[in-house]
User: Which sequence fits this backbone?
């Protein structure tokens, strides 16, 4: 049964609806943009206490380090006046140790918080991804979704440590150091500030470029995962077509794009690093010149100049941290905007306040179904698939949909499952609009076997028990026999616990179809939707499965889509679809005499009565005879 995504994942949409590119390219660095901070705080808010504790401790570690030059100054002055220096040296050593230990504890707490932010974001992303509407998965390819859930969330790790805490700590330390410098000598402070501000303005101009490069690098990684996911998903076809090179080229394009933009980030990053060093060196020379003159004129002591120069070099870590934090902030903002984009995708509709009566009751009767004037087109600018179709499927019995490829048969199933919403018209189950029903309950009442009968990696048991984890051995055996899997299971070395390989590659196509049918039967559905489940079965197994289907039509409404008319000729009613419209409804015999398209389908599949076949053969013979 369908679960419910946690409230946080389903209700809290990030507020900014602009596209991230628009935001990044608004010109200002992320650190100065309210939307980037809002995104950041949204992810960090649940950890605010730990962030405060860890940040506070590392700040304390930094502050205790700040007192060191003051003690160093008194050591120099004591040496000058030949006073004892032992107690000052002990205090200095104790300070070094305390600041190192306190700083380390603070750093550990912050790193733990970072990992927790990554974990909780990943959990939110996982919940969101598995509850996405089917239509939303058409918008972002699975490889890209995976890259956002893994690579982008990994980048968010530095949100706490580098981006937030170092911004705050760096700023506080910077202000504290500047105050201490100002207390020592305001002329030297102004000299330092002039040089540092000039450097800061130059660095800030490169930050928006950095964010956009970081985002493009992440998009390159996403392109790479999408290409690999595509290639690995059709591995045998790629090999059989000798398409390894072209697929590798597509994947490499993403890798190269990521490389190119990461290099840009690295280039800007290292430029900034070098710039800080140069700025401090220039400030050092300026302070040395101005300070030397002031010492010579007696305006300040030599001890104060040495302490001032020490503070100048103390500026390097917070300045570096601040600039690194700005850079990180931009990279993290790019990753967060991609994750937020994913979190903005629409999930399945919430359950109504008062859910409908339980439809999935195992003792419940077979369901009836009605389509009334249903008009549907897939999202995007594709053509209309259903042009106002109407039909009734009474409870119990078997109804089949036939018609040419692309007629809209499988789409009927997608609408019943509510994978998509029709633009107009109504779909009713037991007389109730399915949009009024609880989605989980609706799906619990339905057994659905998709066209490609997907089988997941794991054992046969895992595959059968998807959605039915507590099925008993007896129930499993029942469906294994019903789906004619008994012989296979008995032959396999570990029976039901045999691994079937990635996407069931260790099974034949027909075996995969039967596993998928058994999985659907295990749910004892009130409505069973089978899309082309006999296409890969041999005649013996097709007959057997047809018998199984006929056997359950007393307790279950069975709806099948099939190209092979042999599968559906015994159906209680057959719906013929063509070009998104219902052409005719009737039994095999009725349609043979009344519907030309059905007759044509039957003729091509040798399903006409003998006399009709002879007539068809004669027509074909005439046609061949007329050829030159
Ligand atoms: N996810 C989708 N997005 C856009 N168009 C789609 C999508 N799925 C199917 N279509 C289009 O909708 C139309 C009907 O598809 P549908 O799968 O219902 O046909 P069908 O009758 O089941 O065909 P077949 O017998 O070949 O399986 C087709 O033209 C198809 O290209």
Assistant:
């Amino acid at each position: 049964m369908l679960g419910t995504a946690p409230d946080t994942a389903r209700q809290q949409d990030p507020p900014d609806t602009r596209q991230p590119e628009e935001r990044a390219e608004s010109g200002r660095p992320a650190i100065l943009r309210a939307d980037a901070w809002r995104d950041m705080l949204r992810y960090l808010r649940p950890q605010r206490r730990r962030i405060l504790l860890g940040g506070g401790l590392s700040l304390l570690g930094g502050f205790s380090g700040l007192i060191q030059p003051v003690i160093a100054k008194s050591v120099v002055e004591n040496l000058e006046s030949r006073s004892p220096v032992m107690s000052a040296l002990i205090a200095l050593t104790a300070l070094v140790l305390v600041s190192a230990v306190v700083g380390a504890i603070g750093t550990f707490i912050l790193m733990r918080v970072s990992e927790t932010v990554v974990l909780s974001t990943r959990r939110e992303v996982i919940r969101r991804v598995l509850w996405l509407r089917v239509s939303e998965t058409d918008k972002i390819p699975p490889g890209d979704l995976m890259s956002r859930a893994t690579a982008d969330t990994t980048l968010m790790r530095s949100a706490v440590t580098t981006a937030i805490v170092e911004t705050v700590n760096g700023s506080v330390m910077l202000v504290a150091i500047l105050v201490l410098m100002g207390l020592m000598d305001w002329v030297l402070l102004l000299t330092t500030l002039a040089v540092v501000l000039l450097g800061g303005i130059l660095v800030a101009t490169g930050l928006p470029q950095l964010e956009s490069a970081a985002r493009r690098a992440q998009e390159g990684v996403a392109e790479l995962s999408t290409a690999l996911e595509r290639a690995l998903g059709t591995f045998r076809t790629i090999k059989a077509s000798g398409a390894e090179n072209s697929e590798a080229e597509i994947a490499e394009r993403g890798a190269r794009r990521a490389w190119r933009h990461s290099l840009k980030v690295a280039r800007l990053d290292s430029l900034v690093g070098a710039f800080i060093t140069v700025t401090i060196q220039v400030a050092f020379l300026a302070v040395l010149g101005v300070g030397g003159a002031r010492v010579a004129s007696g305006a300040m002591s030599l001890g104060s100049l040495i302490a001032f120069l020490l503070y100048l070099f103390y500026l390097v870590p917070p300045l570096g941290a601040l600039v690194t934090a700005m850079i990180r902030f931009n990279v993290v903002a790019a990753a967060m905007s991609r994750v937020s984009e994913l979190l903005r995708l629409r999930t399945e509709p919430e359950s109504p306040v008062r859910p409908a009566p339980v439809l999935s009751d195992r003792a419940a009767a077979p369901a009836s179904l009605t389509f009334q004037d249903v008009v549907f087109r897939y999202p995007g600018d594709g053509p209309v698939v259903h042009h106002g179709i109407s039909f009734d499927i009474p409870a119990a019995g078997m109804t089949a949909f036939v018609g040419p490829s692309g007629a809209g048969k499988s789409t009927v199933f997608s609408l019943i499952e509510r994978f998509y919403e029709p633009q107009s018209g109504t779909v009713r189950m037991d007389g109730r609009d399915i949009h009024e029903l609880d989605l989980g309950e609706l799906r619990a009442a339905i057994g659905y076997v998709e066209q490609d009968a997907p089988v997941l990696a794991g054992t046969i048991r895992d595959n059968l028990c998807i959605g039915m984890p507590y099925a008993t051995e007896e129930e499993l055996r029942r469906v294994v026999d019903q789906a004619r899997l008994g012989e296979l299971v008995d032959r396999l070395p570990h029976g039901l616990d045999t691994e079937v390989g990635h996407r069931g590659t260790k099974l034949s196509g027909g075996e995969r179809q039967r596993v998928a049918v058994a999985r659907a039967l295990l749910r004892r559905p009130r409505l069973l939707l089978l899309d082309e489940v006999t296409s890969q079965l041999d005649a013996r197994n097709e007959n057997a499965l047809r018998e199984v289907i006929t056997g359950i039509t007393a307790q279950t409404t069975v709806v099948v889509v099939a190209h092979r008319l042999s599968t559906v000729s015994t159906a209680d009613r057959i719906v013929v679809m063509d070009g998104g419209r219902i052409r005719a409804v009737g039994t095999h015999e009725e349609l043979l005499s009344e519907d030309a398209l059905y007759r044509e389908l039957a003729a091509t599949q040798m399903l006409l009565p003998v006399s009709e076949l002879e007539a068809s053969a004669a027509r074909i013979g005439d046609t061949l005879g007329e050829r030159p």
User: Anything to note?
Assistant: The chain has two domains: 19-343, 369-587. The pocket of adenosine-5'-triphosphate is lined by residues 138, 378, 382, 385, 405-411 (CB under 6 Å). The radius of gyration is 36 Å.
